[in-house]
Amino acid sequence: MNLKALNKSLWAFHFNSGSCNGCDIEIIAALTPRYDVERFGIKLVGTPRHADILLLTGPVAMDMKEKLERVYAQMPSPKAVMLIGNCGNSGDVFYESYSLVGPADRIIPVDVYVPGCPPRPEAIIHGVVKVWQKLEKEAKK
Amino acid sequence: MSEGKTFKIAVGPVHPALKEPVQLNCEIEGEQVKHVDIELSQVHRSIEWIGTRRNPVQVVFLAEKICGICNICHTLCFCEAVESIAGIEVPARAHYIRTIAAELERIHSHILWAGVAAHELGFDSVMHYTWKLREKVLDTTEYLTGNRIGKAIVTIGGTKRDIEEKQFGKIREACNYYRQNFSRLRDIFLKDPIIKARARDIGILRRDDALSLCAVGPTARASGVKKDVRQDEAYAAYPDLDVKAITPKELLGEIRGDVYDRIAVRLLEVLQSVELIEKCLKQMPEGKIAYESKLAKVLSDVKQLKGEAIGRHEAPRGEVFHYLKMVGEETPYSWKVRAPTYNNILSWIPMLKGAQIADIPIVAASIDPCMSCTNRAAIADGKELGNEKLHRLSVEKTRSLKKGPGSERGNCN
Ligand code: SF4
Description:
The structure holds two protein chains of two kinds. By secondary structure, chain A is α/β, with parallel strands linked by helices.
């Protein structure tokens, strides 16, 4: 994996796989002036083809499984996946649902888990830092 | 291109202009949208079904996860329904706390929407500005409930937390903050020539269409339908507060039912919510915050209920409606949630007919859709039949019929 490609700012694509919006609005809150991760060059992009990290929220509804796989495949390598929110991590209150196929890490490989329902923007930023550290470590290998 | 030739474009389910998965199938001729079809069910989470396997106290937590933006409204509706089956009397103070929480939620939701609308218009600086304004109400919510998003303050028979006298100062401060910033927000959204050009006479929903499609909330009010549950069938503390449904006429002097009108209604409602909260603080009575503080006692009271009831609430996007039926068992027999987007989404069709492709995002966003509350699925024999599955079953049946009599007829469920 050529990680030199990632030594600049990370760009993120946000994928909602059936979340309640709680996590999604906290992601946007992390990008907007109070928390402002855009100052580090992290921004949301409109297509997975431009993205370095996938911000995944939601417990992965049945219909979204195939779409998630396709979006993941469209992202150029090297790439990382950040799973945001309890419901994607473990199913949370929806664990027994018939129409969900999560937890998300059964479907695509996940690098960083951010628990919380929803996690605070600080936690999301902390997750991004973890992704960065992880990628740096891999680059040194 | 020859005259009358149309193309189909699909917007969604994963699309940068949509914040949540939904699919809009548009038939276009040149730049013009001729027809729209909407496909839901992508993010169906079977919450109602899960709800019928848990006791009412547990369902309150589940109801909160229906929507991250307006979670007070779902818990409130569900609790209202349980309370009316069980005949629980909610203390007056709890009604006021619920109302304050619900109005804070409205401020947060409407400002959030204003940001999303600005983003859809390509006006990102305004989006950042509005989301910065929104942080104040989130701080206040966190101060009162302990959380920014999941408020978890409403419970069966009252509220979980009190709002004390010493906390009033911070709430008043937030109210003043929005009062001061209101004119700036209004000028940005209603006076800016670019926003005007993009929103005026775009995505028109006529009054009769709004009525026949049963539109609710700001979408209906912007078309001149004066309906608001807080006014028509006041609940919680609203009977004391004298709420009036807001139409764009108050600010603009006329009603056109376009995107611009919907912006105006939502802006006015922010101010209205501020006023309601201030009134609540002034009138809040002393007393208990819940009819019973021990959860175990509440649970034993609501476990073996018999009867059916509804809960209604004016959420930021319109009327939420919960139906609950209990038949003497620990878990609900039936629980039905009807969120406002379910009504409003059909108004996309008259709004988008004749619109330009570039207007699809802002028109779609103008009803403030919330898919997580809306997604439905067909169920047969306990199995989910999404759109794709349903179609596949139908194709299989046709095929088997084509094979002639005697082949697997009737064997395809
Ligand atoms: S983790 Fe919680 S807040 Fe986040 S999407 Fe899931 S249910 Fe909503």
